[in-house]
Design a protein that fits this description.
By secondary structure, the chain is of the alpha+beta class. Helices cover about 30% and strands about 20% of the residues. The longest helix is centred in the middle third of the chain and has 27 residues, at about 80-110.
Length: about 230
Amino acid sequence: MQLSLFSGIFTDHLPGSRVPNEDWSFLKEYLPPLAFERVEYLLNTDPVQILIARNRISKSGDFRASHRGNPARITVNGNLNPYAFLITLIHELAHHAVWSDHMSNSRRFSLHRRSRPLPHGKEWKARFRNMMHPFLVAGVFPVDLFQVLTSFLDNPRASSAVDHRLSVALRNYDPPDHTIRLDDLPYGSLFNLHGKRTFRKKEKLRTRYRCVCLSTDRVYLVNAGARVTAL
């Protein structure tokens, strides 16, 4: 299970978030220049609340369906480079589109209970692939990233961080810093996360590593793509 240290602790939102049907121009500073017009079209076609989140360790973005009068909401980390931001935003918009289709069909055929689509099942894969396709044109992505991305879209994964080639290609466009991906640290290495607690890296469990907090001896699961500071 994923423990609580790495979920929900960096959820403050930066100024500039917008509600549905408003001006989406605030997204320009986060996106590749040639991508904004198409993103604006998608948002005007099927509006959803977009919030820019501060850096979160456990995820780059998420989608929450509308509930009890609250609008559907997407959050994307504001510290992502423009290409990672675009991929993450379209990833979450695909979730929104699949959920909207499911709810529409459930109302239309109310006599038959329809099972919810899997979070990253065939419906999401098809939507994500189709929504990314218009961005696969000259000028939106650099050539090296374009080649890796087209391969990734043959069978999209739940997160770009899970696909090592895409994760590495995207990292080439991050601003320089002194952090390293947890995946790149040797087993048994010590590291800290955002200058806070110190951990020892243990074995990998699918897409996360068991990590022991030295001050408490508690075990946490940390995403393999998390940026950490080696000690």
